[in-house]
Amino acid sequence: MKSTFIRKQNCDQVKMYSKLLLVLALYFAVAESNDIHLGYTSARSKRIYSELKEAGPAIWKRSDEVEVNTTYNEVIDAVYVTDLREDHDGEAYIKSGGVGMQSVVIALKSPTIFRGYKFQIDVYASNQNERYFHKGGGYNGDTQYARKW
Q1: Are residues 28 and 52 in the same domain?
Q2: Are 30 and 87 in contact (CB under 8 A)?
Q3: Which superkingdom heads the taxonomic lineage of this protein's source (predicted)?
């Protein structure tokens, strides 16, 4: 009597784990995308590049490279590349540069022939030297006299 109870309990656990694995497999299959979210924005970050890059279908695979440069005092804080197509099957990757650098090169590719891509690209940067010129408040660089906060 006791052994049949244990077998039934083990069978129920196997069914439960198989359902859990099936749900996880479906979740990962649906949630797959090639979006890039590197870094984070802060209160000092400003958007230096924001553009929608789109390529229509063609007989060959479509590809493009986007290069974003900052000024000499700024470094990149965050790079966000979001695939806006329904299938989310376009390819986007960082070819060079990135967070903490002064430039970034982003490569965009369509998944197959006769398919295009549609990506929203946002790049944020901040001036790393700005924090040395103020005490907690905003820096007003237009004045020649010291201010007391």
Answers
A1: no
A2: no
A3: Eukaryota
**Contact of 121 with 106, CB cutoff 8 Å:** yes
pTM over 0.70: no
Asked whether 101 and 94 are in contact (CB, 8 A), the reply is no
Task: Specify whether 87 is located in the same domain as 53.
Answer: yes
Same domain, yes or no, for 120 and 68? Answer: yes
Residue 64 one-letter amino acid: D
Q: Are 87 and 136 in contact (CB under 8 A)?
A: no
Question: Which structural domain, as residue segments, surrounds residue 82?
Answer: 36-129
87 and 19 housed in the same domain: no
pLDDT digits (tens, 9 = 90+) for 107-136: 999 888 888 889 999 999 998 877 665 555
CA separation for the pair 107, 16 (Å, rounded): 43
Query: Quick one: tokens of 29?
Result: 């299959």
